[in-house]
Design brief:
70 residues; Alpha-Beta Plaits; four-stranded antiparallel sheet; globular
């Protein structure tokens, strides 16, 4: 398993976290998601290597926020 960290902007509450978790959780190969609205930190764990950066960033965008790999 491999983890990748992202900085997410625009989150302010638990609802934001749930929205992002729901979108990122739909990406094939994503095994775990840790997210914190207070720090803006998103950590994605892939089951067969790192998660696809473009897919994660697109999923965060779909939820209404912006992300950049750290």
């Amino acid at each position: 398993m491999s983890t990748t960290e992202y900085q997410v902007t625009g989150m302010s509450c638990g609802h934001c976290e749930v929205s992002i978790r729901n979108e990122v959780g739909q990406i094939p190969g994503v095994k775990g998601i840790e997210i914190s609205a207070s720090t803006g930190r998103l950590v994605v764990t892939g089951s067969d290597g790192p998660a696809d950066d473009a897919a994660v960033i697109a999923a965060v965008d779909e939820a209404g926020y912006s992300a950049a790999r750290v």
